[in-house]
Amino acid sequence: MMHGREFIVSNQATAKHSKTLEEINSEKGSAGDIPLCYSIRSSVINTNFLPPGGGIWITHGQFIVNAFATAKHLDTLERLNADANPESVLSIGMHSTS
Length: 98
Description:
Layout: E1 7-9, H1 11-25, E2 63-65, H2 67-84
Antiparallel strand pairs: 1-2
């Protein structure tokens, strides 16, 4: 169940970086202890307007990172997504030139 502040990782990044994502997601704590940051590289979905019992559809193969780990590792999660999705507009400027 999603509660807010989670990061949904793309199918491609999940397949390419699953071990790293599992390690990041294993970190638990209170997300409220970490200031909420926004990024121009990630879309925010406001679920406050969903009806009771409503939900978000994700595709098979996507990975949902818990809120605490998202708050702590947002930059890394965005880099992993960009690395696996070089054609994405959100990944512009995030790739190494090597």
